[in-house]
Write the structure tokens for this entry.
Amino acid sequence: MIVVRYNPEEDRADENQRLVEAVFAELAATDPGGLRYATLRLADGTFVHIADVEGNPNPLAGIAAFAEFQKDIVDRCEEGKGPNPQEATVVGSYGFDM
């Protein structure tokens, strides 16, 4: 499982959200399988993506909207608060199938 956190510039947060929503729309339309994926927008403006990928390659690599989302992600972020992907292990979960 991978968790990615970042803070877009305040004036670009809605743009970032629209790009993320386009990724989910394409995932729903193509149903690539092998992926569990969620994105959260926290009250402080932080975005958190959680991805659990089965096998290789990562299905997100074939999603055009994901490539568009990633294209200028660093430029959308506050300085020093760009994407920070980290491996994660589920310690506990209630009501989520993770």
Observations:
- The CA atoms of residues 34 and 54 lie 5 Å apart.
